[in-house]
Amino acid sequence: MRNSFAIAMAVLVTTALLGGVAGTAAGAQPTISTEGPTAVGGSAAGEIGTADAPTQTDDACGFPVEVTDATGTTITLNESPDRITTINPSAAQTLWELGEQDRVVGVSQFALYLDGADERANVSAEFGASVERVVDTEPDLVLAPNSSSADVQPLREQGLTVYHFQAATSIDDIAEKTETIGRLVGACDAASETNEEMYDAVDAAENRTGDVDRPAALYPLGGGYVAANNTFIDAIMNAGGTDNVAAEYEAYPQLSDEVILETNPELLLVTDSEATILDQEPYASTTAGVEDNYVVMNRNYLNQPAPRSVIESTTTLSNAVVEIQADSEGSTDGSSGDTDDDSPSDGDDSSGDGEDGSNDGDADNGTDLTTADGNETDGNTGAESPGFGVVAAALALLATGLLARRE
Questions:
Q1: 3-state DSSP call for residue 109?
Q2: Which residue has better confidence, 374 or 266?
């Protein structure tokens, strides 16, 4: 019987990306400044990765504030925005996490699984955001995650205030992104608390798997595409107690069957509760396929660079790693291995929640593919074809219905 581990809570989905802008403009780093006696900014370089890093308090979270985003554009907010539109789900997920959902007036179709999001305007077009729909929400602020790069300029041409985020390729990047959103909406304390919870969950996951063998794992996206190094999914895999067999590649490469067989993962991360990919080659011939080892992840969480995604995904994965080893040791020493059928309770107790959100078309449309992760900044999605651009890759995955919404 397959070792299936599902995750709890359904949170966001991510939108198909097809990002246009190749990374941050001239390598610009987001900066924030305020008028008045209290200077505001995110944690200093190197401080983001700790839960106790000095962060902005709401007392110093005032307005006006000037913010320079990933495109190098400086925007000014004279007062806290009352109407916020998010054009990709990771930003919406973060605002919900900060308790600021009442100010959200527009969301993408992939964020509609969030509690109450269906009462907001759906601003999605067939691809990306609908400029007309976003304008109709009359936003004071538009939040545009990395995968929404192609939508930024058209929205600015309509006179809208748009903050565009740089790619989040690590847990620290997600923390910084969360602090930035908190500062933009005047919820700095909530952002700090959210990041503390996220880092606590990561520490717990790492401690949970500290004394067990780390399985060689792979997250296949379909069509030979996988999540590799320099992606936030790789960071989640590492924190969750696995070693990513695709780590020698960058972003979301397309690997040949031969290369996948050579990497020979012992564990597959899947977002399909039936794990049908294990019955397909080349995966069926890997150790994971032969031994039927997989963990079912909620695609909404796994595919979006936001705090709740990190909390739920690292918890689910680390629990699965521990239980898989327990099952393995139980079968080796002849013990009954009572976690076999009941093991899903570790990550499965929430599967009801997670399944609801994930069956929303989640992962299939959510891998911001290379972008939600910041991969679109590479412009290279194929280990075998370095010249294959992000847009071409995204179109290829969309054509096969396998592009998982990520950002």
A1: helix
A2: 266
